[in-house]
Amino acid sequence: MVEIQLGENDRLDWALKQFRRRMIRSGLYKDMRRKRFYEKPSEARKAKSKAALRRRAKDRRNARRRD
Fold it and tell me: How many CB atoms are closer than 10 A to CB 51?
């Protein structure tokens, strides 16, 4: 759970910005976006394997740069 403590003199726009940053850092924002619509289990598996392929390709590209 993400919480923001406000003092009497704190501005609301500051609090909203802090809340958004903490949501993004905790991973809840990404999770909320992912769960916004129902995803069939078969589609979820396909998306997961695609993400793994992208990660592996990225790791290979970065490994070549380090050599």
Answer: 10
pLDDT at res. 67: 67
**Assigned token pair, 65:** 């740069």
Report field, pTM of the whole predicted structure over 0.90: no
Nearest CA-CA partner of 50 in 4, 1, 42, 26: 42
Question: By CB neighbour count within 10 A (0-12 exposed, 13-18 middle, 19+ buried), where does 49 fall?
Answer: exposed
Q: CA 6, CA 29: separation in Å to the nearest integer? A: 21
17/15 Cα distance (integer angstroms): 5
Torsions phi, psi of 31, nearest 5? -65, -40
Question: What's the token pair of residue 47?
Answer: 């998306």
Structure tokens at 60: 């290979």
